[in-house]
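Request from the bench team (R.T.):
"We need a structural guess for the complex before ordering more copper (II) ion. Sequence and SMILES attached. Just send the tokens back."

Command: build protein-copper (II) ion structure.
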Amino acid sequence: MTEISSNPARISRRTFIAGTAVAGFALAACANEKSVRIPNDRIGAVEAARPHTGRTVAVELTPGPAEIDIGGTRAATFAYGDALPGPLIRANVGDELAVTVKNRLDHPTSIHWHGIALRNDMDGASPASPDIDAGAEFVYRFSVPHPGTYWAHPHTGLDADTGLYLPIIVDDPNDPASYDAEWVVVLDDWTDGVGLTPQQVYDGMHRGGMPGMGGMHAMGAVGGSTLLGGDSGDVSYPYYLINGRIPAAPTTFNAKPGQRVRIRIINAGSDTAFRVALAGHRMTVTHTDGFPVIPTDVDAVLLGMGERYDVLVTVGDGVFPLVALAEGKNALARALLYAAAGTAPDAAYRPPELDGQVGTVDMFTAAPEVDLGSGKPDTALSVELSGGMMSYNWTINGRPFADAEPLTVTQGRRATLTINNMSMMWHPMHLHGHTFQVLNSDGSRGPRKDTVIVRPMQRLTVALIADNPGEWMLHCHNTYHQEAGMMTSLNYAV
Ligand SMILES: [Cu+2]
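Reply to R.T.: structure attached below.
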């Protein structure tokens, strides 16, 4: 690996970042010229048909420069205030969120409400909704139709790899809690302000290219992963965080032995899949990306960037590390669960559950109430993912986003979307505004998801119902792949 400065972002040979700082350059925000504009009344009609409580949850967010203590180390970055993650937003199904954003950054920003089936003109992703200029103010106003675990982050440049992220929970008051306590666990990979900036990381990879690097993982900085089907990532980060803290200075959660705790796990990372386990416990997966599944017991769960898993645990008697293994990167993030007085194992402790039965997307099935059924699709869409490290040219259907040929659906129809990964890297593919259902290769229906891991050379099909008119981004949730162009849009026919 290439060591840079005294407290470096460690970079695998695959990424090959030069050892000198690279001047940042502004990437032109290329609005897709094939952009469509769905008439406001159509978006308004769908919004009106969503559940409405008449209650508004008002929130103010000020994205701006911040210096965050990540556990004895301070990171100069961007954040929503002075904490990491940003403030939890919580609402009931049918509430309206009114989020006033005062942009204190020196560049445009947006907030994308990841996973929420909201009105298209509030999605926080250009061009469907406007980016917010430096110094400007914008109010996102939309209702939240489905309960679940969601999160928010910018959809501008590389800012998703800074401290700009926060969890969102939507509760269903008619669904009584079957647990005693709730623990929100946000995972992240961290370099900004302690190692290279995201722009330096990107520039290094974009200009990189290294003869003979295919399949080579010098120093083990970024290695392979069986679960991910090959290379695990492009960037080896200085730190991996749970709720904004490094493993040596973890956050803690207190519970009593025998209590049932719902853990809402969110992967807010940019280039890291995490394998998560609670030492000494099995966990019951209850939700994938906010939507219920038939409860399934596992030892650990695997989350790509953008994914959420909710799990239930029955707390044992003791002190238990919750450990997130940075998949293929030989590094950990952790937090501690205290259910008794005692001493936690040291920061490098790796619970055996991580090597037990790992929950992956193919193991889960949507709960009957959210199953999309076996209806025959009207439309079959497909995308091909390609690209590689050599020129860092990640694309969908051979085109970067600036030249993308959008997919088209007709409102009210059922569609399948087949994602054909022809690259040697896995990609967590995310669709805005919809929660699709994974179709298993044996024809059975899997879980509802808005972000799904597609392994190298895998062909994965999902089903969706076109019930939310607009222009919706479909992209890889690796921040660097997305920035390099791995994004297109799913447009409703006007
Ligand atoms: Cu990708």
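Two things stood out. The longest strand covers residues 181-190. The chain is about 5% helix and 40% strand.
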